[in-house]
Amino acid sequence: MTKSVVVLTGASSGIGEATARLLAQIPNLSLVLVARNQQKLKQLAQDLKQTRDLDVLVYPLDLTQLESIPDLVEAVRAKFGRLDVLLHVAGMGDFKPALEQELKNVETQFQVNTLSGIALLQAAGRQMVTQGEGKLLVVASMSAKLPTPQSSVYAASKSAINTYASVLGMELEPLGIPVTVVNPGPVRTPFFKHSSAMQDYIKNVDRFAMDADQVAQKLVDLVVRTGPMPREVNLPFTMRLAYLGQRFFPGLACWLTVRFANFK
């Protein structure tokens, strides 16, 4: 039986690492681990191989180097002959008032959260069109659906990749290549260790936050799913309800957000 080849970005920590550990338990699967930290990737690959005899390719890559992203897909094609699933988890963010966001930081967030995603989707999508099948999965954020004060740039970058993926799905679904965006709410991961403001935020929303394993399980379910794929998955249920409320009552939702949901 031909093994499915899954490329996983952001694999060295957080949701990406949790997803890699779950994927390693699935038979007939080859895994490509992508992140900047080569040492962490190698250690993770060793851990996964202890679970079973798993085909793992470690591919260190700084996703801000956009010109290098097509080389990743070519390396996967050269080693495995195909690419069945792209699971793009990598992301970064910083919370500050909108007028205090330095343009360099704005650029970095859009490079990681938006431009790298577009480059990955393009390169992987072209390979999947050539082989006639595949599946594209992108982790964005509920911030794209429910932006809150001090998340202007992060929310905007995630909203942009949401929109791009939505249009890409319209174009590729007729070819048998579904595109799904997963929007998690707050998740307890090292993502929030980059600044004191982000550490304070995750503490304030802890009662609403999910564990990385919860999101990882949803991602793995989508990887192995054989039926029709959703175009969008919003997590958790409470934030999905809040998003529906925001769509129907945007003015009220904005008022409530500023007064009762501004945890940053």
Helices and strands in order:
Elements: E1 4-9, H1 14-23, E2 29-35, H2 38-51, E3 55-60, H3 69-80, E4 85-88, H4 103-131, E5 135-139, H5 152-172, E6 179-183, E7 187-188, H6 196-204, E8 210-211, H7 212-224, E9 232-234, H8 237-248, H9 250-260
Poorly predicted tracts of residues: none
CATH superfamily: NAD(P)-binding Rossmann-like Domain
> Helical content, roughly?
40-55%
The fraction of residues in strands falls at 15-25%
Strand order of the largest sheet: 3-2-1-4-5-6-9
| Second CATH tier, the architecture | 3-Layer(aba) Sandwich
- CATH C-level class is Alpha Beta
Spatial separation of the terminal alpha carbons: 50 Å
Query: SSE order, as H and E?
Result: EHEHEHEHEHEEHEHEHH
Q: Whole-number radius of gyration?
A: 18 Å
Structural class: alpha/beta
Fill in the CATH topology. Rossmann fold
Return the average pLDDT rounded to an integer.
88
Give the number of DSSP strands.
Answer: 9
Q: How does the major sheet shape up?
A: 7 strands, parallel
Quick one: overall form? globular
SS summary, helix count = 9
- Number of self-contained structural domains: 1
Quaternary state of this entry equals single chain
